[in-house]
Amino acid sequence: MGNASSMLTQYDIEEVQDHCNNLFSQQEIVSLYERFCQLDRNAKGFISADEFLSVPEFAMNPLSQRLLKMVDGLNFKDFVAFLSAFSAKASKQQKIELIFKVYDSDCNGKVSFNDVLEVLRDLSGPFMSDEQREQVLVQVLKEAGYTRESYLLLDDFVKVFGNSDLKMEVEVPVD
Amino acid sequence: MLGGDLVGEQGMGSCGGELELMKPSSSESEADRPDTQDDPPPGSSVHEPSPKLLLQDFLDISSALNEAAGAIVDDSFTRCFKSNAPEPWNWNIYLFPLWCFGVLVRYLILFPTRVVILAMGHIIFFSSFFSVHFLLQRQQALRRKIQRFLAELLCCFYVASWTGVIKYHGPLPSLRPNQVFVANHTSMIDFIILEQVTPFAVIMQKHPGWVGVLQNFILETVGGIPFNRGEAKDREVVGEKLKNHVRGSDNNPLLIFPEGTCVNNQYSVMFKKGAFELDCAVCPIAIKYNKIFVDAFWNSKKQSFTKHLVRLMTSWAVVCDVWYLEPQIRRPDESPIDFSERVRAIICARAGLKKVPWDGYLKHSRPGPKLRERKQQSYAESILRRLEK
C-alpha cells in the first residue's frame, strides 16, 4: 500500500467523487490516491513538477511542460478533477475543454495563431522549420475558414472536431 | 507512436490507415467552410483519395495528452522500484499476540545474537587480514589466497547474521579467464550471497561511510573495479579496466550487475551493454528472493544500507534462490545491445521477472532529449509526408 500516510475515509472519497462529477468510481479514486502518495514523495499533499518529471514516460512527452503548468502543485482533489477528462465516462465536450485549456496557456479564453504554433513547435521539435510550421498552419486555417489573425474560441474547437471521436481515455489500474 | 496515432484519428472509426480519405461525416462539418476546391493551396492535394491535412489534425493533440495522462496514472518505470509489502497477517485477535511474541523474539533475542556473530566475524576478518598482510609480505600468492578465503568467510558471517536460506542451483562457477558473470540486482547483499561461494571480483559504485571502507578491503582481497555513476568520463576508463581484468589470468572472475541500480526483484530494467562488448563468455546468474519473511529489495533512495541490514537482521530469515545459468557467447551477427537483451531474457525467464524497456540510471537523473526527439521526429515526418502528397 505504498506510504498511505493518511488513509482515505469514506467522506473523503465521496467529496473527491463529487468534485470530479462522479467521473471516477470509488475504487478508482482509492487507486489514484495510492498513485498520488507514491508520486508525492514527502507527503506534502501535492506533487511537485520535479516529482512528475521523475516519471520518464511523462518527462519524454513533448507536451510535458505545458501539462506541468496545469498539474504542478495540485492537491489530490484537483488532481482527480484534472484526470477526470480522461475517464471513460467523460463527455467529448469535457475532453475538448481540456484540449482547449492546453492550447490557451495564458487562460484568456481565446487561442491565437501563435498558441497553435507554439503547440506545434512542442510536438514537432527540431524536425520542422518555423517556416514550414507557419506555412502549413496558415493553409489549414484558411481551409477551415479562419485567418492568421483569427482567435479560436471553445466553440470553434467544438466545431472543428465535429462528429469525430476523441480517443482520450486512461484506465486506472484497480487492484 | 504519436505520428501514427494522429493519422489514425483521421480514420474515424474505420481502419485508420494512412490512405483513409475524408469520411462523409467530416465533409458535413466542412460544409460551413469555404470551398477551396477551385483554388488548391500549394503543397496539398485535392484529389481523393490522398489524405488532406485539416485544422482538426493539428488541434487534435489527444494522443499525446493520453500518453501523458497514462504516464501520470501508472508507469512501468516507477513500478520497478516499488516495495510491495506482503499482506499483514497479524490483524486478528489471536494472531496479533503471536506476532507480538515474534517481534520480541526477533528484536530481543535474534537481533543481539546476530550482531554479536557479525562483530565476531569482523574481528576475525580484520585481525587475520592484517596479520597475514604483515607476516606474509614476501609470499604474495599465499597471502592472496588466504585473503580471498577471508573475504568469503566474512560473507558467510553476513549471511549467517540474517539466517540466510540460500539455495544454489546449477554448476558453481569455474575459475578460468575470459568470462564475466552477470546477475540481476536487488540489493548490495546480492554480492555477499554470491561471494560466499565464489571469490568474485566485482565492479561497484563507490559508497560513503563504513560501507566504503569495507569496499576498499574487498577490492584489496578479491580485486575489483570501483567507479562513480555520476562521472560520465568514467565509463570509458571503466570499459578499459573491464577488458584488462578479463584478460588477466590471475584475476578472480568478474561479477557485474548490468542493471546499474537496485530493482525490486519483480521487474528488470535494461542492461548496460558494457559487460557485453568484452568479447568473452557471459555467464548469467539469476537471483530471486522469497518475500515470505522480508523483502530484500534495497531502495537506496529511501533507506541507508545500515538500516537495510538492520531490517534484514530483525527478520526471521532471508530466503532466496540462485541459479547459475549456461554461459552465453555473442553471436557474430548480434550487436552488444541485442546480446544484452538476450541474456536479460534468459535471466528474467529463470527468475520470473518482468522486463521493462527503461534505463536504470533514470532513477538518478532525468531522461535525455533522445526519447522525446524520436516522438517529435515521427510526428513531424507524418505531417510533412502528407504535405507533399
TrEMBL record, chain A:
UniProt keyword annotation of NADP present: no
A Pfam family this chain is assigned to: EF-hand_7
Molecular function terms, GO-annotated: calcium ion binding
Keywords: Calcium
Lineage top rank: taxon: Eukaryota
Gene3D superfamilies: EF-hand
Start and end residues of each EF-hand domain: 27-62, 91-126
InterPro entries (UniProt xref): EF-hand-dom_pair, EF_Hand_1_Ca_BS, EF_hand_dom
TM spans (from-to): none
Protein name (Swiss-Prot/TrEMBL): Calcineurin subunit B
Organism per entry: Rhodamnia argentea
Native organism taxonomy: Eukaryota, Viridiplantae, Streptophyta, Embryophyta, Tracheophyta
UniProtKB/TrEMBL annotation, chain B:
Subcellular location: Membrane
Recorded metabolic or biological pathway in which this protein acts: Lipid metabolism
Biased composition (Gly residues): 1-16
Domain Phospholipid/glycerol acyltransferase: 179-290
Main location class: membrane
Organism domain of life: Eukaryota
Location of region: Disordered: 1-48
TM region positions: 91-109, 115-136, 148-168
Keywords recorded for this protein, A-Z: Acyltransferase, Lipid biosynthesis, Lipid metabolism, Membrane, Phospholipid biosynthesis, Phospholipid metabolism, Transferase, Transmembrane, Transmembrane helix
InterPro entries for this protein: LPCAT1-like (IPR045252), Plipid/glycerol_acylTrfase (IPR002123)
Pfam family, one: Acyltransferase
Family indicated by similarity: Belongs to the 1-acyl-sn-glycerol-3-phosphate acyltransferase family.
Family annotation (PANTHER family): GLYCEROL-3-PHOSPHATE ACYLTRANSFERASE 4, ISOFORM D-RELATED (PTHR23063:SF2), PHOSPHOLIPID ACYLTRANSFERASE (PTHR23063)
Protein name: Glycerol-3-phosphate acyltransferase 9-like isoform X1
Upper lineage: Eukaryota, Viridiplantae, Streptophyta, Embryophyta, Tracheophyta
Gene: LOC115732887
